[in-house]
Amino acid sequence: MSLQKPRVLLPGSFPKLVRDRIPEIIKNRTGKYPKTRAAVSGPEYLEFLVKKLMEESVELAASINGASAREELADVFEVIEAILKIKKWPRHSIVNLQKAKAKQKGKFNRKFILLKKPKG
Predict the structure, then answer these.
(1) Segment 17-38, tens digit of pLDDT
(2) Could you tell me the residue ranges of all domains in the chain?
(3) What string of H, E and C letters represents the secondary structure of the chain?
(4) Are 73 and 60 in contact (CB under 8 A)?
(5) pTM
């Protein structure tokens, strides 16, 4: 089963995946529970997780030099953890792939900026 190419969710875009306690927090603030539903399948949940990862990445980029950058990075990590869980991928397997890619292609330590894609 393939996923549709997700659109980037901009802040304020709905429907969107929210953390477990967000409906309760909204109810406490406004006096009413917001309209919600659970994802109906694993593939739908995964699609919303990918959209959430893009949304959180945009928020991280927007705040990277600000006080909330670490909080936004924690949000990205939370979504990654959820993706690992639904895919049943052990964290260490991803870390091993990360190490293999670093060995094969390097890391980002030398801070190269590619100015143009080479032909061929």
Answers:
(1) 999 999 999 999 999 999 999 9
(2) 1-93
(3) CCCCCCCCCCCCCCCCCCCCCHHHHHHHHHCCCCCCCCCCCHHHHHHHHHHHHHHHHHHHHHHCCCCCHHHHHHHHHHHHHHHHHHHCCCHHHHHHHHHHHHHHHCCCCCCCCCCCCCCC
(4) yes
(5) 0.84
